[in-house]
Amino acid sequence: MLPPFRSSRPRRLAAVLATVAGLLATTAGAATAAPAPRSCSFVCVPDPVVLDGLHLAGNKIGLMAGNPTLRTSLSNLLKQADDALAKGPWTVVDKERVPPSGDKHDYLSLAPYYWPSQPKTPENPQGCPYVDRDGQVNPEMKNVPDKAERLVAFNSIYQLSLAWYYTGKAEYAQRAALDLRTWFLDAATKMNPNLNFAQGIPCKTDGRGIGIIEFSYTFTQVLDAARILEAGAPGWTKADGKAFRGWSADFLTWLRTSKNGTDEAKATNNHGTFYDLLTAATASYVGQRDLARQIVRDSGKARIDHQIAADGGQPEESTRTRTYHYHTFNLVALTRLAQLGKHLGVDLWSYRNPNGGSIFAAVDHLLPAATGAAPWPLPDIHFIQYAALDSVHAAADAGDWKARAAVGHIPAPPGGDLFPVRPAAEQLDDVSTT
Predict the structure, then answer these.
(1) What's the whole-number mean pLDDT along residues 381-406?
(2) What is the pTM of this model?
(3) pLDDT averaged over the chain?
């Protein structure tokens, strides 16, 4: 049974506001990293689903005070946001291949690790049957662009909304709003709220519950982006917000009632953890907080009990060809669930399973390899050291002293360490195209 979590949000908010006058006095005349937004003052505290709005507000104050870590992180974020201004918008109707439903508004993708086992002939043009080659991506999946465009679109929406929050520049918010409306709301371009045809296998199945993983954390970024835009962003209206909540509520119903959704809920590895994250975050966003709270509370026994050993290893992820990747990947879901739980009064960080396994233990298990102090003890066909960085950051923020000591010794990903200004874990080593 998870202990109740007593939020310090009101006390922390008071502390943030109480420091503003003093910080402004000490920074008067000094160079600042980012101006206050025009429609959301520097004390504006958004209400994201996973991110901590108070943390974001504190970051803005830190930027005004010239914090060098925050300034560097924001500079890296703005490079990506500026790039996103010149791309998109993206839509599922752009694809040439028509889903089995006959409706291009349905999302479509192929199972990444499945390959044809026979030569392609006029009698067998697809080379069926397809066979699993774990960890090896079939390049044929690039012929169906929904998955790749979803990743770029959702990341762009997230980065643009944060860029607006920190800088106040209207063009960031307006572009995020356009991308949101194009993918989810506009009649000509919107995606239907289902994943019926995600990760299909030619000659075998049109879609699988496993395909839900393609939305399972990136959609929670979009939910946070929408909440940030609701803090007064230009270009995102109350009608937009209402429409997107309606889309999200329909999607939540599909997740909880469809065969694909109920199949994914039964998964015992990272798929099950990400399903919990997706359903809990979506429930919280649409106002079903009791449901969200129950999902997070149950994830202690349903996920941590089974998934994390006493030493912090993750047996379910230890049989893969990319064991380090899947250890870090599952931790993205667990740490985001813990951050979501904090908003709902559930302390998942403190949960210990009967063997002593916990999120902290799972993070600490990665530290020797993540810092380069020791080699990763399991096989991994494409080890990427920095993959653990965000989860280590998250654990450090939550009070893990080992993670706090280690975080500075983990290399940053190519785009820089964004965690200081978007403080929630992301998958840093995308393996979908390699």
Answers:
(1) 97
(2) 0.89
(3) 90
Compute the distance between CA of residue 157 and CA of residue 84 in angstroms, rounded to an integer.
8
The CA-to-CA distance between both ends of the chain, in Å, stands at: 41
Q: How far is CA 409 from CA 93, 152, 372, 402, in A?
A: 44, 29, 8, 12
Question: What is the reported pLDDT for 407?
Answer: 98
Give burial (CB, 10 Å; 0-12/13-18/19+) of 251: buried
414 alpha carbon, distance to own chain's centre = 18
The secondary structure element, H or E, covering residue 24 is helix 9-27
Cβ contact 341:283 at 8 Å: no
Helix (H) or strand (E) holding 197: strand 197-200
C-alpha to C-alpha distance for 74 and 80, rounded to whole angstroms:
10
Least confident of 116-120, 244-248, 370-374, 382-386: 116-120
- Measure the CA–CA gap between 179 and 199, rounded to whole angstroms: 24
Q: Which of 69, 114, 68, 94 is nearest to 189 (CA)?
A: 94
What residues form DSSP beta bridges with 115? 131
Structure tokens at 243: 């429409």
Query: Helices 218-229 and 170-180, interaxial angle, to 10°?
Result: 130
Surface-to-core class of residue 352, CB atoms within 10 Å of its CB (0-12 exposed, 13-18 middle, 19+ buried): middle
